[in-house]
Amino acid sequence: MAEEARIASLLKRERYYRDTRQWDKLRKCYHPDASKTRIAVSVFKGNADGFVDMSQRSTPPGLKVIHTIDPVEIAIKRDKSLVHSNAIISARALVDGVDYEITSWLRAISGLEQIEGEWKIVSLEVIYNRDSLVPSSPQEKPISLGELDKFRSSYRHVAWFMSSKGLNVPNDLPGEDDPQSVMQVMKRNQQWFNTA
Questions:
Q1: Between 99 and which of 119, 136, 141, 150 could a Cys-Cys bridge form, CB atoms 3.0 to 4.6 Å apart?
Q2: pLDDT tens over the chain, length 196 residues
Q3: Does domain 2-194 have CATH number 3.10.450.50?
Q4: SnoaL-like domain spans which residues (predicted)?
Q5: What are the CB-based long-range contacts (under 8 Å, 24+) for 1-6?
Q6: pTM of the full predicted structure?
């Protein structure tokens, strides 16, 4: 259980460091060789260095985002670990003068390797489950539902918000509304783990 606790702690700290803009600590959670890392979340696909850089550029001071991660299943084989977690992302966002609360529920699949006695993240992929969007104040007028129709149900509100900020959100992200995409993520990560 000691190794599981160390792994769970690392995954929780990684999310905390991103939310609190501690970029050096965030980077140290990942494999030191960025070429051995693979991150695929929302609008980013690339390595750990690129992810930290993108996070730094897209997380201005004052943006209120909280990532909560709860590792549920931690498998360990020699120097590898494959972790399935439940996760929630919550944010307060201002769009067209209206404050919104955005919440996204998802699964995170993390691959870790032990390097010189320390666990480091080598991969992170997410599977979107559902999300919600509500005005922060009951007096505010919500957006037109028609604006949401072009986005997939598993990450509709997150995609709407990111699009409102000029980001191009892919329509083929892994999500519970597309079982084939979920199977691909699970298979890819299990194959990686099985090579341990």
A1: 136
A2: 799 999 999 999 999 999 999 999 999 999 999 999 999 998 899 999 999 999 998 876 666 889 999 999 999 999 999 999 999 999 988 888 888 899 999 999 999 999 999 999 999 999 999 999 988 887 777 677 677 888 999 999 999 988 888 888 999 999 999 999 999 999 999 999 999 7
A3: yes
A4: 3-124
A5: 3/76, 3/81, 3/119, 4/71, 4/74, 4/76, 6/119
A6: 0.92
